[in-house]
Amino acid sequence: INNGILQSYKAYLPLTDKTPALTLHEGNTPLVYLKHFSNKLGIELYAKIEGANPTGSFKDRGMVMAVAKAKEAGSNTVVCASTGNTSASAAAYAAQAGMQAIIVIPKGKVALGKLAQAVMYGAKIVEIDGNFDDALNIVKEMSETMPVTLVNSVNPYRLAGQKTAAFEVIEQLGSVPDVLAIPVGNAGNISAYWKGFKEYNEQHRCGLPKMFGFEAEGAAAITQNEVISTPETVATAIRIGNPASWELAVQAQEESSGIITSVSDEEILQAFRLLPRLEGVFAEPGSCASIAGVIQQCKENQISSGSKVVAVLTGNGLKDPQTALDQVEVQPVSLPNNAKKVREYFQT
Ligand SMILES: Cc1ncc(COP(=O)(O)O)c(/C=C/C(=O)C(=O)O)c1O
């Protein structure tokens, strides 16, 4: 039974006997072998399906930790900036904890499913005519001047919770992967995974993976080593130009002898279309940067054949139905309400 990460990994988490036992039964997500991609690329490729978390993204791991600690500290309001998934998760865990969530999001740049979640979970939603980085500056200022707790990944409890995914990957794979491929936006998740792998290695001497982080080409601050003031990508989840965990991410890349590079929107959309069709796994565009990156790095001979690779699929495909419908060339065919006519259609 999955009782959530606070219980499953309490030995690794900064809990006290006063930390509320908050959970929506996050974590323990599937690790799926991608047969088609593995055969095509000559590697053993697995997907970590973080879209199977309660609010449909990896954010739940960090948010359950951050919200529980906020409640323990006596706070009754959490605040965050978001490209969508952080706000959905903050709103859900705040509701579960009987707290209020305030979220600040870039107007018109949050995928439909994420907005629906934030609304339904009862968050107070502010849309600004700016981008995620502007929104993060606003909520940082609010958390310094109002009695609210900031739960973006600058909050260390977020990274503590999110590192549990690394433990699961090792336990599920039965070993440390040679490469851990992951999308990079605000760079908290790549930093959290590396923290988790190092801690687990200290305990179990299991070795360490190479960390391969992938930014969207139009929002590739770390890759280009400069702040991108107007980040643009179809993968709105990672449309971030000034990653808050920049230094931690570079440290993860250097210490693991990995890479942080970028993938184009076309490479992302190619993976976005192929993954569900060929493997039965549907992940939102930002998540597919990890698959696009593995394909790219295999082509550039940066991943030796037979390597064990885990690609983190950070968010469920249902989050962004509009991009799915815009991108798919196969449209439903409309036929009369008549069994014979429909049968004939398929027999011709
Ligand atoms: C699906 C998906 N995939 C990858 C990322 C990048 O993770 P980080 O590099 O740890 O930021 C995000 C990030 C989303 C937000 O930053 C937010 O929701 O505000 C995401 O939603």
Automatic annotation (TrEMBL):
Pathway: Amino-acid biosynthesis; L-threonine biosynthesis; L-threonine from L-aspartate: step 5/5
Top-rank EC class of the record's enzyme: lyase
Reported cofactor(s): pyridoxal 5'-phosphate
Tryptophan synthase beta chain-like PALP domain mapped to chain residues: 23-315
Domain of life: Bacteria
Record-listed E.C. numbers: 4.2.3.1
Record NCBIfam families: thrC (TIGR00260)
Function: Catalyzes the gamma-elimination of phosphate from L-phosphohomoserine and the beta-addition of water to produce L-threonine.
Protein name per its UniProtKB record: Threonine synthase
Organism in which the protein naturally occurs: Tigheibacillus halophilus
